[in-house]
């Protein structure tokens, strides 16, 4: 989700559930990793464990849910010693404070959002809006340039940029475990939320090539269940088709001399690649507006 986006929830949707541990088949932990699901938007937190320590990716959302992830690491004899962050949206950094003794690593661009206070402000706004207690303020201990392999404790993590949803996104690949972690991309539960539709299209094209030519065993999106590579490929292709159709609809309307409002109406007429929760429907218009901005300069103020 967007760092500052706080959509309105339907009645009852904001109640906080106990943390749920969910794995590949929703019942049994896969060797080496377990997925946890937050109370909002089926947000994923991933616990990756080795012999005597573990790594958590994007711990979320409430303090109680995040504490449950930490307890699970202790139960496995693998306390959380490392935190890895895919991007700076509030629902992906809100649990960092739950691991005060862990080393927190993220891309340089995401670290800027932590350093200047934007991430903490977003977490506090969301906590007030949705009525949950966060784990504390986010922080960063180590940064990396996207596109390099990094050692995170016993884990070797290949990193690569994922841009389009936000400009700071990082993807992670842990080959020893067959995992590809993609942040807010390739979700079976949501459609693309694009701050830059053109960049998002390029990211999807790269992911499609990877899924075809060098597929992982499991793809882990930031929202919704883990996926087999073929299922993730189908989602990537559908999302790319949607964004291409959105671009075509807006360009066609404007090339016929249409107004911004007419281009927006044309963009809103493009079918989404899948159904989404009602509280996220408004992001459809957000995508259209960003696409128009990439084609036409913003009107100058008088």
Structural topology:
Layout: E1 20-22, E2 33-37, E3 44-49, E4 54-57, H1 63-75, E5 80-84, H2 90-93, E6 103-107, H3 108-115, H4 118-130, E7 142-144, E8 149-152, E9 155-162, E10 169-174, E11 179-181, H5 197-213, E12 218-220, H6 229-255, H7 260-268, H8 283-295
Parallel strand pairs: 4-5, 5-6, 6-7, 11-12
Antiparallel strand pairs: 1-2, 2-3, 3-4, 8-9, 9-10, 10-11
What does it look like?
With 302 residues, this protein is of the alpha/beta class. It has helices spanning 63-75, 90-93, 108-115, 118-130, 197-213, 229-255, 260-268, 283-295; strands at residues 20-22, 33-37, 44-49, 54-57, 80-84, 103-107, 142-144, 149-152, 155-162, 169-174, 179-181, 218-220. The protein has one domain (20-295): Ribonuclease Z/Hydroxyacylglutathione hydrolase-like (Metallo-beta-lactamase, Chain A, 4-Layer Sandwich), CATH 3.60.15. The chain has eight helices and twelve strands. The strands form two sheets. A seven-stranded mixed beta sheet has the order 1-2-3-4-5-6-7. It has a five-stranded mixed beta sheet with strand order 8-9-10-11-12, with no helix packed on it. Helix 6 packs antiparallel against helix 7 and helix 7 (260-268) packs across helix 8. The chain is globular, with a radius of gyration of 19 Å. The protein starts with 19 loop residues before the first strand and ends in a 7-residue tail after the last helix.
């Amino acid at each position: 989700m967007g760092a500052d986006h706080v959509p309105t929830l339907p009645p009852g949707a904001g109640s906080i559930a106990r943390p749920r541990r969910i794995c590949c088949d929703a019942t049994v932990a896969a060797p080496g990793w377990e997925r946890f699901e937050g109370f909002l938007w089926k947000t994923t937190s991933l616990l990756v464990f080795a012999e005597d320590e573990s790594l958590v990716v994007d711990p979320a959302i409430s303090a109680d849910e995040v504490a449950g992830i930490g307890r699970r690491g202790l139960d496995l004899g693998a306390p959380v010693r490392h935190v890895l962050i895919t991007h700076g949206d509030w629902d992906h950094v809100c649990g960092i404070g739950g691991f005060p003794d862990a080393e927190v690593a993220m891309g340089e661009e995401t670290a800027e959002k932590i350093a200047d206070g934007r991430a903490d402000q977003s977490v506090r706004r969301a906590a007030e809006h949705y009525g949950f207690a966060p784990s504390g303020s986010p922080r960063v201990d180590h940064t990396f340039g996207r596109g390099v392999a990094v050692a995170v404790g016993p884990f070797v993590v290949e990193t690569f940029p994922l841009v389009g949803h936000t400009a700071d996104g990082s993807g992670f690949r842990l080959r020893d475990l067959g995992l590809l972690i993609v942040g807010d991309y390739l979700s079976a539960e949501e459609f693309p939320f694009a701050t830059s539709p053109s960049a998002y299209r390029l990211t999807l094209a790269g992911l499609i090539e990877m899924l075809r030519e060098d597929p992982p065993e499991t793809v882990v999106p930031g929202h919704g269940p883990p996926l087999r590579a073929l299922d993730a490929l189908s989602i990537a292709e559908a999302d790319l088709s949607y964004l291409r159709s959105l671009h075509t609809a807006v360009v066609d309307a404007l090339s016929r001399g249409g107004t911004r409002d007419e281009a927006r109406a044309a963009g809103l007429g493009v079918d989404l690649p899948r159904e989404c929760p009602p509280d996220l429907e408004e992001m459809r218009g957000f995508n259209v507006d960003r696409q128009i901005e990439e084609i036409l300069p913003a009107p100058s103020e008088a």
